[in-house]
Amino acid sequence: IARHGEGIQHLGYYIEDLDAELANTAADGIAVYAQGELNGTRWAYLDTEIGGRGVIQEFIEIRKHRHARK
Q1: How many CB atoms lie within 10 A of CB 22?
Q2: Residues 62/15, Cβ–Cβ less than 8 Å
């Protein structure tokens, strides 16, 4: 708070294909700040805090569960 004041620290977006989204952001010159996996869910924080004033963006990969009916 002392550095940037009050406000949003980051926004998370649920996506279906993390690899594709990271390729798109890399093509736009946006780097990955951190990424990992937690309980089978992959995520990545993007280095979008431009000039120290931006909001960090997070991608959270969701997997579609397909249940076959017999």
Answers
A1: 20
A2: yes
